[in-house]
Amino acid sequence: PTIHVTRRDGRQEAVEATSGQSLKDALKGAGIDEILGLCGGFASCGTCHVHVAEDWLARLEPVRENEAELLGYSDWREANSRLACQIPFTEALDGIVVTVAPED
Ligand code: FES
C-alpha cells in the first residue's frame, strides 16, 4: 500500500506503508524528515500535521477532541488538516494523498 505525499519543498513521493502503522510512522519511516512526530504519536506536539486531499478526507475516522484542539494552535490549519499520528493506516487507505503542512 502506498501513500502519496507532497513534501515541504514541493517534491512528490510515493512511500510504502503497512496496515496497523500510523500514517505518521509510515511517513517518518520512509524518510519524510519534516514529519518530526516529537511527542511519539500522542496528539500532543502537532509536528505531524498534514493536509489530506479532499476525496480522502471522508474515509478517515473523525477528528477527536484533543486532535482538534492541537490543530487549532497551528497557523496552517485548514478544513482538511489532520495529525498523521491519529490516522491508523489500513489497506482501505491505499493511495491516500497528503501534503505536509508548513512549519509552525
Ligand atoms: Fe505528536 Fe502527532 S506525533 S501530535
Automatic annotation (TrEMBL):
Database matches in InterPro entries: 2Fe-2S_ferredoxin-like_sf, 2Fe-2S_ferredoxin-type, Adrenodoxin-like, Beta-grasp_dom_sf
Cofactor: [2Fe-2S] cluster
SUPFAM superfamilies for this protein: 2Fe-2S ferredoxin-like
Region annotation Disordered: where it falls in the sequence: 1-19
Keywords, comma-separated and alphabetical: 2Fe-2S, Iron, Iron-sulfur, Metal-binding
Domain 2Fe-2S ferredoxin-type per the UniProt entry, residue ranges: 1-104
Family of this protein: Belongs to the adrenodoxin/putidaredoxin family.
Protein name stated in the entry: 2Fe-2S iron-sulfur cluster-binding protein
Species of the source: Sphingomonas alba
